[in-house]
Amino acid sequence: MYFYFNPSYRLSLEAKYFYEIGEYEKAYKLAHKAYLLNPYNKMAFTIETQSKIAKEWQRFIDDFDNYFTDIEKIANKPYISEKDKLRIKIMLEILLDEYKMLKPSLLLPKDLKEAAKIRYEKARELYEKLFGSRS
User: Fold this and answer.
1) Structure confidence by residue, pLDDT tens digits, 63-93
2) What secondary structure letter does DSSP report for 121?
3) Confidence (pTM)
4) What domain range is 72 assigned to?
């Protein structure tokens, strides 16, 4: 009953729900509010921290999807210029570097980590196929 009537813990529980369904931005905002209300709320702190990390992983996935849409448009052109090839190379390098900068966490949902890893592997394989291995 205490958790229901305490605003900080109620927000934490709501944040946990949104984290569990993959709404990391909303989870982060709610957990942040909960933590501001009560800095001793460990659940709020944990969810805020994990949501922040999960948002970075989700951003990588979104960036990958956007970049690969652009890469497919370029690949479907009748002629691919040197400028287009350079653009593809830069997009792939950004993705490869972005993935390497992601913070690991044991608390992240496995499906989020797996989705990011699959995309990273696809970007790496395409990069190596088109430009050779990175040094």
Assistant:
1) 999 999 999 999 899 999 999 999 999 999 9
2) H
3) 0.88
4) 2-131
